[in-house]
Amino acid sequence: MTSRQQSRQATKKKRLQPQPTSKYKSKFEAAFADSLHKKKIKFTYETISIDYTISYSYRPDFILNDFYCETKGYFSSEDRRKHLVIKKTRPELDIRFCFQNSKTKLTKAKNSISYAKWCERHGFLYCDKFIPTEWYA
């Protein structure tokens, strides 16, 4: 084995050896903390969690006297997720769905549920094509 090959093997072994564990997530954070220590600046590292929310707005398709009606041909996973968040954060809103076809499956998977079944599972009223008389009478 040549000295060049030995050098490459030694370098390879160095890279494969686990690095000493650090309480910091990156070398940059560790260096930053080290600079604070050297300057005798007191600090703590990731000792608190700060909750935050990202604000969104919802614009219903149709506003009837006492409920909102969403019309859906295609009911995307993003839309479903959005409506679950709205229901959780604004339970006082009465949101109902009017589907082109409530028997449509959510996905192409064999055991996928229909739009109707999703609504039933999550407590949303729904209909097909046109709203039933009892919703507005």
**Within the CATH hierarchy, at the fold level, what is the topology of the largest domain?**
Restriction Endonuclease
Structural class: alpha/beta
Spatial arrangement of strands, main beta sheet: 1-2-3-4
**Percent range of helical residues:** 25-40%
Number of helices: 4
Order of helices and strands: HHEEHEHE
Calculate Rg over CA atoms. 29 Å
Number of strand segments = 4
What is this structure's SSE topology?
Elements: H1 3-16, H2 27-38, E1 62-63, E2 68-72, H3 77-89, E3 95-99, H4 115-122, E4 125-128
Parallel strand pairs: 2-3, 3-4
Antiparallel strand pairs: 1-2
Describe this structure in words.
- The structure is a single chain.
- This protein is α/β, with parallel strands linked by helices and 137 residues long.
- It folds into two domains: 3-38, no CATH class; 62-135, 3-Layer(aba) Sandwich (Restriction Endonuclease).
- The protein has four helices and four strands; from the N terminus they run ααββαβαβ.
- The chain has a four-stranded mixed beta sheet, with helices on one face.
- 7% of the residues are buried.
- The mean pLDDT is 88.
